[in-house]
Here is the input.
Amino acid sequence: MKSKKNIRAKKQKTALIRFGLGYDVHRLAEGRKLILGGVRIPSEIGLLGHSDADVLLHAICDALLGAAAIGDIGKHFPDTGEAYRDISSLKLLSHVGILLQKQGYQIGNIDSTVILERPKIAKYVDLMCGRIGRALHISPHQVSVKATTHEGLGALGRGEGCAAYAIASIVDSGRM
Here is the structure.
């Protein structure tokens, strides 16, 4: 029979895997740039928000922050802060990566979905994965970006906005 001490020692060597879910939505408006995943997409309309309004990166930030249980994007980068007006969300994402590292976490993977009627963004997905990977100092192969429409249903389906979901896994590097 194994002693309790041996069982505890084995548990301490087991990596702690955590998961977080993120979601963001912004209105589409004329006179704004459409930036998704850190990539400027040619479009006559863009996302309206305090920063560059990159819903994909905002959802990923929230997924990562949630996985580490250290708040959300609004806590770390409030839309009342002038320092964040028109800021690139890649900078916010990079800062989230640093916060995770300081907490002793490594990113396992990120999976995300963008909901947008138009324009189609499939040809930009690889570029988005590369930019997200660089901002977080991970391989682009650890990042998945998918796109879908809302099939004409609701505000998103009418092309009034864009939304994104993300899920992320992180590992407590101190327990690996």
